[in-house]
Design brief:
Number of strands: 8
CATH superfamily: Aldolase class I
Largest sheet: 8 strands, parallel, barrel
Strand order of the largest sheet: 1-2-3-4-5-6-7-8
CATH class: Alpha Beta
Low-confidence stretches: none
Structural class: alpha/beta
Amino acid sequence: MRTPIVAGNWKMNRTIAEARDLVSKLLAPLMDITDVDRVLCPPFTSLFVVSSMLDGSDIGLGAQNLHWEEKGAFTGEVAPGMVKELCQYVIIGHSERRTYFGETDETVNKKLHAALRHDVTPIVCVGETLEEYESGRTSEVVLRQINLGFAGVDPAVASRIVLAYEPVWAIGTGKASSGENANQVHAQVIRPALTELFGEETAQVIRIQYGGSVTAANASEFFSQSDIDGALVGGASLKADEFVAIVKAAATSN
């Protein structure tokens, strides 16, 4: 049985004061839900204050990115050791990073190895664009992203990875994939690819989230599926009641 994991990706939203206000509304209700792994991923500027507020709870903290080098002349970047000081999780390879900032499967792979070296749980994003989806290339694209992005990962540590399937055409558009279609990608494309890389036993342990316009209204549709193990939530994670409802839906399906 895989424990569901629901992570809130705040993206480039919320000042420190606004982050403090949001967490103050989330903390008590999220602490009452114990059979789901809950993760908050605020901007870098708010990580310290959110970390302080989560201290003593079992709610995880995640960064939205990291660099693969340990230190050096990389202005504007954040090293994995710096992330490790505050966070237990890190999002890697989000489609917005790939689209707007030139991230590739190769750089995703470097970041994945860096996170694993520092015992930070990586949430690795994969997913196809609208053009790729409409041309029937979903499997081809997702398989490439997994095979190149996960290259060289030791099967002994692969079970620590969380994978997030986020069809790019569904992110922030309000057009979520159906639960059945998302689960088909999880069960027939992603899980077999992980089996090929790491073996059946490890592949069955790795959790696969769905991401892309997840809301309180549609969360149960996704969480009721056999191979959807949680969600990477964007806009809805900025609304306390909405995010708590999504986490509760994950708990109910467990």
